Task: structure prediction
Amino acid sequence: MSGLRVRSLPALSPRQALWAVRFFALFLILLHLAAPYLPEEQSWGIFPFTYWPRWLEWLAAGAGALLCVPRANAVVRAALGWLGRRVPARPGRRWWFAGFSLALAPVFWAGRLVHTRWGDAYILVNAIAHPEVRLTYTWQAPLDLFLHAKAWALANRWWGWDVMQTYQALSVAAGVVFVFLLLCMADEMGRSPAEKALFAGWLGTLGLMQFFFGYVENYVWMTIGILAYLWLGMRAAEGRNDIFWPAGVLGLTHAFHPSTILGLEASLAWLWRRRWIEERGLRRRLAMTLRVALPMLIILAGVVVLMEAGGHGIQALLGEDAPGGGDHRWFVPLTQTATRWERYTMFSWGHFLDWTNEQLLVAPFSLALVLIALTTRAGRCTLRGPAGRFLAVAALNYLLFISVWNPDYGGRRDWDLFAPAALPLTLLAAYLWRDMAEPAGKPSGDMPVLSQAELAEAALMVAGVSAIFTAAWVYSNTIPWSWPGT
Result:
């Protein structure tokens, strides 16, 4: 544990940290207002804000700025608190969560994406339905593509749907599941209404929520798997459930999209190592290892059987469908590009801009929230706990992946490949900030902490401003766009 002790660094008080978040939120608002005056290709992470009429941009910016004012924030919290008190007590709470999640389905559908600009959407929409192709199998997303292709075949036969309608409908369904899972997780992890709102608000307003507005790509359902894995992994780190469950969920998530192997596998290895140290006796340790390996091996075997049965088995994996995109080159080149699929080198300005724009689009607050929290004593103490360490490993692992993996289409078009990294990072931020606050009704001891009211202020400020940016991003994808020459 001594490796994470950073007490020699100067520490901010939690209230100073709250002021830092206020200033950062105002900076982000000003940055988005400046988007019309910046080159689109170099500021694509904030450029969706420009799709709104200018008067609406200023209105939204003003509303976000008001949330940074403590008194105005308190007025909004009071109104939301009144609504929150209408939620039933715990025995019926999950039914309310289910109803709320289902009620969002029309919202997701109304804001659905209407083009094929991002990722492989154009290929999927055309190749799945093409009579000479009937794209069904790929090692890039084995279960995801297979299920979407089979769902389209049924929907087309029954209702005459095209591929895009099928993807849109399944995207909305995934959004309902994601929101329900998020609300259940927030309800468990939060010890007070403010803490529950912190988790639900910070994760539920990320830019990756675009996935659930009729999105056409192979990253939608794996995002649910990532959230479930992180929740179960935190519980396993604290000894509240067996390691079998996060291992099984992560194995299934790998089957939907193998990018999570590079993005999250280190966190599962950390869980295994922790349990190995805790278990006593070789037999118990081997049994625990089997509970990690067995579900993943069973799922892997199932995927191999599925792909072999479809005529796209191991030979395809080692040949034309090998990982690494069009040129089968995995990582951003260090010093020199060699193919048309490599856009820049590792330490170039272009790579830095794409990485920064990705954060601004998907998780504008998250990294700053983590860094600010770690300047406080409470944040550092939380990071030394098992759940904090698990989330830190997951967040760092995924950030490393998106920092070195080469996006064939460039960072903007491949934004969706890197977007899931926002989940472990934002969950870590929420977990650190939760423990910067005094638990409701309990003394804080000699460590300076935020009050529950101040934590609620931070939760609303970040969620509200982030929701404004995400709303603009979703709106921008409701505007038709066509490929040149089509």
